[in-house]
Prior knowledge:
Blueprint: H1 9-18, H2 29-44, H3 50-75, H4 79-105, H5 111-139, H6 166-174
Amino acid sequence: MYDQEERPAEEKVEKxxxxxxxxxxxxxxxYHKSLDYLVWLQDIxxxxxxxxxxxxxxxxxxxxxxxxxxxxxxxxRNKVQFIHYLKMAKSSIxxxxxxxxxxxxxxxxxxxxxxxxxxxxxxxxxxxGALISSLQRSAGFNNNNNYNNNRYTENQNxxxxxxVSEGNAENEARGNx
Length: 177
C-alpha cells in the first residue's frame, strides 16, 4: 500500500522497535547509547589540534569504543561474566570522563561539549548500574556480591539465563517505572 518513502514515520519507528535482533546486545538501549556517544565523540575529536588528534583523540575514542565492545562481548557470556564485562564498561566510562576533563582543561572542547560528554557518561553509568543490579538479583547475588546458595540454579550459568528484564532495569535507572 505505501511505498517505503510514503510510510508514516510512526509506523517505521514501531516496526524498528518490534524486530528482535539475532545479537541480543543490540536490544539493549545502553548499547545504542554507547554507539551514539562514540559517533558524537568522533565528530568532536575533529576539533582537537593536529598534534593531539593522533594521541589524546585516539585514546579517547578507544575508551569510548570499549564501552560498546564490553557490552557486546559480555552479553555472549553467562550472567556472572556479563556482570564483569559491564563493570569493565563502567571503567571505560570513567576513562572517558578523565579524557573529557583533560580535553576541556586543554581547551580542546568547550564547556558545552564537556557537559554533553558528562551527561552521556552519567546516563550510561546509571543504565549499566541498573542492568548490573538486575542481573545480580536474577542470578541470586546478595548484598556482598556472593551467591545466595538457596537461590542458585542451573539457569544462572546458562548463556543468557533470564536477563530479559534489562529494559526494566534501564527504566529504573532513568526513573521510568
